[in-house]
Amino acid sequence: MKALIGLLLLVFGHNVSSVIHSLQSFHTVSSGLSTFPEYVMVAMVDEVQVEYYDSNTQRIITKQDWADQDYREDPDYMERETENRRGNQQVFKGNLGTLKKRFNQTGDVHIFQRMNGCEWDDEDGTTEGYEQHGYDGEDFLSLDLKTMTWVAPVHQAFPSKLRWDHDTAWNQYVKNYLTKECVDWLKKLLAYGKSTLQRTERPRVSLLQRSPSSPVVCHATGFYPNRVVVFWRRDGQELHEQVDPGEVLPNHDGTFQVSVDLDLTAVPQEDWGRYECVVQLKGIEDISTPLDPALIRTNRGDKSHILAFILTGVAVLAVVAAAVVGVFLYRKRNNYEKASQTS
Question: Which GO cellular component term is one of those annotated (predicted)?
């Protein structure tokens, strides 16, 4: 897989000029979790949380000052949307009960999730919509907008697929929301939160290494937006071997971080000067950091930076767990689409 990704990057190169904006909603209903709300709904714009609702409070909480502009302009709108969330709560609870019967389950912890949303490329204007359902951490149903049919990766989903495939009115409604209404909302929210969502924060780049035998980590943090490209070069050529890229993760302050490891096991230290870490982010010049032992923070010397890095990671895990209960469906959607394209 790494070789395939490297080949694609070699052929097409990096592209950080185009920004793809997204609006997503995550619905999670669970059973057997006494300390967790039965139903949670989270809305995100460009992976920034803008709205939260759960079955305990039964009220909508906006997470950004600019996200409640429609609510302030139309007080009845908040009441209508709150009733919609309460209705969704009952629907999803019923769906969970149905799935437990199909899988012949009774007790224990079970989770049903739905993720839907849209993406908009701010350069060429192209859009994409998607809807994905998951059960107990696995794909359950997804909508193929091109064929207007539902994909069922497990046999327990076939009854729903057959029923929904023939419900043309409902499918047309979903398509209209994903391809038009959702995109309109996304553009409106982008306009409301322009100063926040369309800003550029320059990354801080550090080289970290736990021990002499550990990989050297190129760690970029504090950047915004999250569409950053970080890679290692040797003699001016991008490396695809020896490299282990990490995922972009959120920081507690709304910025992002990412780490890319470089394995130097077979590289003598006198050749380290041939290597450099490159960070690319739209709106700023490329940041190049040479692989200089004097620039590497390690556990053998100043531990403060390593400790801050570890604590930041802990904070990130807490933020992700609290804010976005169903984000893994987005990852699974991407993995599923990549597998389908490969097939």
Answer: extracellular space
